[in-house]
Amino acid sequence: MKKTLNNSIILLVLIAASIFSTSCTNLSPEKTFEIAALNSNLLSRFGSKDINFKLESEPQIYDEAQKKMIPSSYYDYFKFDIANLETQFKKIKEIKEDDDNRELLEASKDLFSYAITKEKEGYLPIAKMKDEKASPEQIEKAIADFDASTQNDIEVKFTKLMNVAKAYVEKHNINAKIGI
Questions:
Q1: What is the four-CA torsion angle of 166, 179, 119, 108, rounded to 10 degrees?
Q2: Hey, CA dihedral for 162, 165, 167, 173, is it positive or negative?
Q3: Under DSSP, is residue 63 helix (H, G, I), strand (E, B) or coil?
Q4: d(CA 152, CA 150)
Q5: How far apart are CA 161 and CA 110, in angstroms?
Q6: pLDDT average, residue stretch 152-157
Q7: For the purposes of burial, counting CB atoms within 10 Å of the CB of 13, is it exposed (0-12), middle (13-18) or buried (19 or more)?
Q8: Which of 10, 91, 130, 158 could cross-link to 74 by cystine, CB 3.0-4.6 Å?
Q9: What gap in Å lies between CA 174 and CA 46, rounded to an integer?
């Protein structure tokens, strides 16, 4: 009796693990859309809007040990936000690509990859300037230079993702509105 119970438990665990692993790799179109397109809202203020918002905020990061937000430098605050983008990017890359979702995933990966790279190259030096008490004029110039070098590319990538997402939503009858 005990051996049968143990075998039954093992079988149930294997079935549950199989269902779980399958559900993680074969997402529904709705979940794929949510991860690949809706998460792009994290980038909707990319550039000067985002940088200025963060520089006007109290710099904080999440302290896992204390389970709360704690004061930080602007540099660490910006790094923390970039790490959150990298987590979302990793989720996008984990979606199993197929003929149906390939264009959506490629556009999403392109946008996130570009944004993360540019934030590391541009946001972090600006945050360091703020921490080191650079003049407001120096910071404003760095922000303007950043926008001048990235705004066109980010808008093109964002628009491409929204156009692909709109087609994906229509194809799968997903209840979502895409603003382009």
A1: -10
A2: negative
A3: strand
A4: 6
A5: 9
A6: 97
A7: exposed
A8: 130
A9: 26
Q: How far is Cα 139 from Cα 136, in angstroms, rounded to an integer?
A: 5
| Structure token pair of residue 130 | 């703020």
Query: Is the separation of the CB atoms in 33 and 169 below 8 Å?
Result: yes
CA distance 157 to 46: 12
User: Token pair 């509105």 is at which residue?
Assistant: 177
The token pair at 148 is: 């001048």
Predicted TM-score (pTM) of this structure: 0.83
**pLDDT of 23-51, one tens digit each?**
445 789 999 999 999 999 999 999 999 99
Structure token digits, residue 57: 């905020």
Answer yes or no: are the C-beta atoms of 33 and 176 closer than 8 Å. Answer: yes
Instruction: Answer yes or no: is pLDDT of 162 > 80.
Output: yes
d(CA 78, CA 119): 9
Q: For the chain, how far is it from start to end, CA to CA, in angstroms?
A: 63
- Number of alpha carbons in the 13 Å side-chain half-sphere of residue 72: 20
Query: In this structure, what token pair is assigned to residue 120?
Result: 């590391």
On the CB side of 11, CA atoms within 13 Å amount to 6
C-alpha to C-alpha distance for 143 and 141, rounded to whole angstroms: 5
pLDDT on residue 77: 97
